[in-house]
Design goal:
Layout lengths: L2 H47 L8
């Protein structure tokens, strides 16, 4: 493999790794957003079930 072929292969590998990392980060972000939504929903439901004001002042 010549220097040019090696450089082309390295560039293709770098591009593939960037795409993989971008997809991975998107999945992690989506999962975090879903977790936040689930927690927020539980908090809203818990507050709805609690008949008294949390802050009595």
């Amino acid at each position: 493999m010549g220097a040019y072929d090696r450089a082309v292969a390295m560039e293709r590998h770098d591009i593939a790794m960037e795409r993989w990392q971008a997809a991975r980060l998107k999945r992690l972000l989506k999962a975090a957003q879903k977790r936040k939504e689930r927690v927020s929903k539980k908090v809203r439901e818990a507050r709805k079930d609690f008949p008294f004001e949390q802050n009595p002042s």
